[in-house]
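Worked example

This section walks through a single chain of length 92. The input is the sequence exactly as stored; nothing has been trimmed or padded.
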Amino acid sequence: MASDSSGTTYDASAYWKKNISILGILLAIWFLVSYGFGILFADQLNQFRIGGFKLGFWFAQQGSIYVFVILIAVYVKWMNRLDKEFGITEKG
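Given that input, the structure is written out below as tokens.
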């Protein structure tokens, strides 16, 4: 058992297992979008267009950045939910 800054105790091992699994999922999505869509699957995606540009090119230049920013927001929401699940609070 561990405690946060407010003294609340929680199961640190279970918390970090879930935290690492969340990071793994989000990093896998980021890898798929940036490396997969932008490089590996670019030729197949280039058959489609978005905003006048080939889709593979768009993912390599801008799409992966948009997805990365969205993943940051998803991570924040997911971690807030995880913190509530384990009763962890921030001192503020």
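What to look for: The first strand starts at residue 2 and ends at 3.
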